[in-house]
Amino acid sequence: MSVHLLVPSLTYALTPSGRNACDQAYDDLALETLNFIESNFGREAIRTFAEERAQRMFSGKSIPALVAELNMAGYAATFEAAGNSGQLCQHHCPVVDAAKEYPELCEEEANALGESLGAHVTRLATLAHGDGICTTLIPTLNIQFDHDTQRQVQASNQRDATYKEKEVSA
Questions:
Q1: Contact at 8 Å (CB) between 59 and 112?
Q2: What are the boundaries of each domain within the chain?
Q3: What separation, in Å, do the N-terminal and C-terminal C-alpha atoms of the chain show?
Q4: Which of 161, 134, 146, 149 is nearest to 62 (CA)?
Q5: Which neighbouring-strand residues pair with 123?
Q6: DSSP letter at 3?
Q7: N or C: which terminus of the chain has fewer CB atoms within 10 Å of its end residue's CB?
């Protein structure tokens, strides 16, 4: 079964310089904190932190709940499904600079996402590596997209598109 989504006719993505123009003091704080953890407790403590954080974000959540959680955390996430596979996109990352220096953040998010969905997921692109968006392929989903789930995903994607439209016109 395929999910038909309303997609805006135009999509905009911020360049690294555009992201730098936005006030992202939380990214500076995250990077400073991770540097402190590494210097006082070692690099393995970073992985432990990243794993625990990712589990909190993803564990036991459905696709619509994951998209909503990511959006509340500032990731501007969307999900597009086709049959039993799908693509999770994060159009913004509130800690992109920290993720550049500490790729464990992205790696553990992908691991926790796969565990939560019971599926093998593959990161195709990340903002931390200089790509325009973070894209995660979920090739087989062990969940059925019933009508209620489809409506929730559509509503979440539509809210994201409306938010972006308002942000661009502001």
A1: yes
A2: 16-169
A3: 37
A4: 149
A5: 136
A6: -
A7: C
pLDDT digits (tens, 9 = 90+) for 88-105: 999 999 889 999 999 999
Return mean pLDDT, the chain.
Answer: 80
The rounded distance, in Å, linking the Cα atoms of 61 and 72 is: 14
- In the β-sheet with 77-82, what is the strand arrangement from edge to edge? 77-82, 85-90, 134-138, 122-125
Contact in structure between 70 and 90 (CB atoms under 8 Å):
yes
Domain at 16-169, CATH from 3.30.1380, 2.60.40, 1.10.10, 1.10.4200:
3.30.1380
Q: Would you give the DSSP letter of residue 74?
A: T
What is the token pair recorded at 100?
Answer: 């550049």
Q: What is the pTM of this model?
A: 0.71
